[in-house]
């Protein structure tokens, strides 16, 4: 029984990463209708950005974990904005499939370039000293860093949800998705808003990457497998549903954690099994709306 | 891919120019080496492009080209998928004139390639794969298994740690041929040394998060947690074990297959104190240092792993056999010749290849240095003890190989 509590908590931690990543995807899809397959590569770039800031720094000054949490998402977000402006914006009038193919290709190119430069074993990234160690909860040993990941991810997810669903800015965004021409007629610069939203979604991926760096190896392929899982999460939650992405992210983390305990061999497939069932029963996803 | 195309073109040109030269038994007038490796995933750094570099260095150092033989190297990515690896091997043998396949890090792919090589009567020099079945129940007259195998790792590390007091074990095992073989062989070694295995968990290959499995290992109360995995799986599990305070909590971590690239990726801060078995370390003697000094600049500064060294050494022996026979077409004959001559190369020293295809050389129990002990980049290992060649590998009679009479 004690072991089970531990597994639930671990599942929740992994769910925190799924939630953060699927949130970014859901924001980009829900508001811009782009299926962003570069999300995994951008997550990886966030981690590499943190590694680079620590080992090379800016102007010779090495920057640790905390500055990286701010700088990496901005840097990778700007990279995303460049991609949106120069490439994706040309595809808005076409079917979603074109955006998907473009971003999928880009992801392969980015991962290939990083692998060529840094190899496949990855780079070490030490945990920030303030977050090392752990506490014994009785039923398990909880590393402080993992606790921080859950808290930070919850705050980020809820804040994003609040901004989009409950503020004026969010209502502009949602209106622009429904009817861009009308919103533009009210004097709102829709293309700029779209670009910034895309940059924000990408920044979320990079932020998750920085948070993952001390736990996993900073590895060019770290996002490649994750992105497929995260897409499954988004599909299960309902494409574009922000609350759905958050809840399914955490929920599936727990389901996966339990699978790792009861039948570990299936732990890499269980999410896809659920995806198939959800698609058969509720094609729009658990929280999605039928169109 | 580009390299392959280029080599194909070169082959066509070479074929057109060299019709009817003296070496009639050299197929296509060229000894064609296929380096089949993981070029894109978790084993890339420990094998991958470095194995191609090692093959090239073997060609240079053997002087085979000066003796009138033409040699060509092609390479491909098996993606850790037996089906992909098999179809490449078939294509290479059937239509591209490849005479020998080397490396193949991934036991699942290697077992498939070994079968095809036997069917086509070519030669397979296995350096990357671990499963001891290659020279056991799945042995083949066309396969030589160089470098290491799961029995040797199990025997070296498992026995040493159990005798030091690590009497109960829990395994975190990669869920495919290699992991299962490693767990089986280590279990045998642990039990023989008087220890017992209290549990295990099978983990899908290329897993990112090991915390669930580490937690299970922790609650098993086993004294030793054996990592029957490799590459990125090993580094991730070691890193996260540190995070979960496994070693601080009094349990010992045994990396059963650890490469120098893994230690490099972890950094000494995390990897220090790890004990494991290897058959090659770049900083052992002048010859290994000279080899590594030439190798590293050609492979992004990576110092050669034992897999790279094995590709090099096994090819040297292959060239000797081909040179003696003046033949590269009859796989069984070549492998028999390789077995009949003692091996002697700069990296593994003197040794031999046994009738079941197992190459014998010493193995070393090493311990990873602390950051303070390490004087230079890649200065990572202390050699704790040397296991002589005749004790390092599974006794011939225990393997169940049908070639052994």
Write a structural description.
The complex is a heterodimer of chains A (291) and B (405). Chain A is mainly α and 291 residues long. Chain A has one domain (2-281): ABC transporter involved in vitamin B12 uptake, BtuC (Orthogonal Bundle), CATH 1.10.3470. Chain A is 70% helix and 2% strand. Chain A has helices at 2-32, 39-55, 65-86, 96-118, 144-166, 168-178, 180-185, 190-212, 222-237, 242-262, 270-281, and strands at residues 134-136, 141-143. A two-stranded antiparallel ribbon of chain A has the order 1-2. In chain A, strand 1 and strand 2 (141-143) form a beta hairpin. In chain A, helix 1 runs antiparallel to helix 8 (190-212), helix 2 runs parallel beside helix 4 (96-118) and helix 9 packs across helix 10. With 405 residues, chain B is an alpha/beta fold. Chain B folds into 2 domains: 2-148 and 285-360, Rossmann fold (3-Layer(aba) Sandwich); 151-283 and 362-396, 3-Layer(aba) Sandwich (Rossmann fold). In chain B, the strands form 4 sheets. Chain B has a 5-stranded parallel β-sheet, sandwiched between helices. A 4-stranded parallel β-sheet of chain B has the order 7-6-8-9, with helices on both faces. In chain B, strands 10-14-15 form a 3-stranded antiparallel β-sheet. In chain B, a hairpin with a 5-residue loop joins strand 12 and strand 13. The radius of gyration of chain B is 21 Å and the shape is globular. Mean pLDDT of chain B is 91; it is low at 8-24. The chains are: A mainly alpha (291), B alpha/beta (405). Chains A and B meet through helix 1, helix 9 and helix 10 of A and strand 7, helix 7, helix 8 and helix 9 of B.
């Amino acid at each position: 029984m004690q072991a089970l509590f531990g597994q639930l908590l671990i599942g929740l931690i992994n769910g925190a990463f799924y939630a953060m990543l699927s949130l970014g995807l859901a924001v980009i899809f829900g508001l811009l209708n782009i299926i962003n397959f570069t999300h995994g590569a951008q997550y990886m770039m966030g981690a590499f950005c943190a590694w680079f800031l620590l080992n090379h720094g800016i102007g010779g000054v090495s920057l640790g974990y905390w500055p990286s949490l701010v700088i990496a998402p901005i840097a990778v977000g700007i990279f995303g904005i460049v991609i949106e402006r120069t490439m994706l914006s040309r595809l808005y009038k076409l079917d979603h499939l074109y955006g998907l193919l473009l971003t999928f290709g880009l992801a392969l190119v980015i991962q290939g370039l990083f692998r060529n430069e840094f190899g496949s074993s990855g780079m070490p990234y030490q945990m920030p000293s303030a977050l090392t160690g752990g506490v014994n909860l009785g039923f398990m040993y909880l590393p402080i860093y993992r606790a921080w990941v859950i808290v930070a991810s919850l705050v980020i997810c809820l804040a994003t949800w609040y901004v989009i669903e409950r503020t004026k800015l969010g209502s502009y965004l949602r209106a622009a998705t429904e009817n861009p021409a009308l919103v533009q007629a009210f004097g709102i610069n829709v293309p700029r808003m779209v670009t910034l939203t895309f940059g924000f979604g990408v920044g979320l991926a990079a932020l998750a990457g920085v948070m993952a760096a001390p736990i996993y190896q900073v590895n060019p392929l770290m996002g490649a497998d994750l992105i497929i899982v995260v897409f499954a999460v988004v599909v299960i939650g309902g494409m574009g549903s922000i609350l759905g992405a958050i809840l399914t992210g955490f929920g599936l983390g727990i389901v996966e954690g339990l699978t790792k305990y009861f039948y570990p061999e299936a732990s890499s497939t269980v999410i896809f099994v659920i995806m198939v069932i959800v698609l058969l029963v509720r094609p729009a996803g658990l929280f999605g709306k039928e169109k | 891919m580009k390299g392959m195309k280029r080599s194909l073109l070169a082959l066509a040109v070479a074929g057109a120019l060299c019709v009817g030269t003296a070496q009639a038994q050299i197929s296509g007038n060229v000894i064609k080496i296929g380096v089949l490796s993981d070029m894109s995933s978790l084993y890339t750094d420990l094998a991958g492009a470095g194995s191609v570099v090692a093959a090239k260095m073997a060609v240079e150092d053997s002087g085979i080209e000066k003796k009138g033989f033409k040699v060509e190297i092609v390479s491909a990515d098996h993606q850790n998928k037996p089906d992909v690896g098999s179809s490449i091997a078939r294509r290479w043998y059937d239509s591209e004139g490849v005479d020998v396949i080397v490396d193949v890090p991934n036991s699942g792919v290697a077992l498939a390639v070994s079968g095809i090589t036997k069917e086509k009567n070519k030669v397979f020099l296995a350096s990357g794969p671990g499963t001891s079945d290659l020279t056991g129940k799945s042995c083949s007259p066309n396969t030589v298994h160089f470098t290491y195998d799961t029995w040797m790792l199990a025997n070296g590390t498992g026995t040493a740690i159990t005798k030091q007091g690590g009497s109960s074990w829990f395994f975190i095992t990669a869920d495919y041929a290699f992991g299962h073989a490693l767990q089986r062989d280590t279990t045998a070694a642990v039990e023989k040394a008087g220890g017992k295995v209290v549990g295990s968990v099978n983990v899908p290959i290329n897993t990112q998060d090991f915390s669930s499995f580490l937690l299970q290992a922790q609650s098993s109360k086993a004294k030793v947690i054996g990592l029957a995995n490799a590459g990125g799986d090993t580094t991730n599990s070691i890193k996260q074990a540190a995070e979960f305070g496994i070693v601080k909590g009094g349990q010992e971590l045994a990396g059963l297959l650890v490469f120098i690239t893994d230690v490099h990726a972890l950094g000494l801060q995390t990897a220090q104190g790890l004990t494991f078995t290897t058959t090659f370390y770049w900083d052992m003697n002048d010859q290994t240092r000279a080899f590594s000094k030439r190798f590293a600049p050609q492979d992004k500064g990576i110092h050669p792993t034992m897999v790279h060294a094995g590709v090099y050494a096994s090819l040297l022996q292959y060239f000797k056999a081909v040179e003696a026979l003046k033949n590269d077409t009859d796989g069984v004959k070549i492998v028999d010749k390789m077995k009949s001559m003692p091996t002697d190369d700069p990296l593994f020293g003197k040794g031999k290849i046994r009738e079941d295809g197992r190459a014998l050389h010493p193995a070393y129990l090493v311990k990873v240095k602390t950051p303070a002990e390490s004087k230079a980049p890649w200065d990572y290992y202390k050699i704790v003890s040397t296991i002589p060649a005749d004790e390092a590998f599974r006794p011939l009679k225990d393997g169940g190989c049908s070639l052994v009479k």
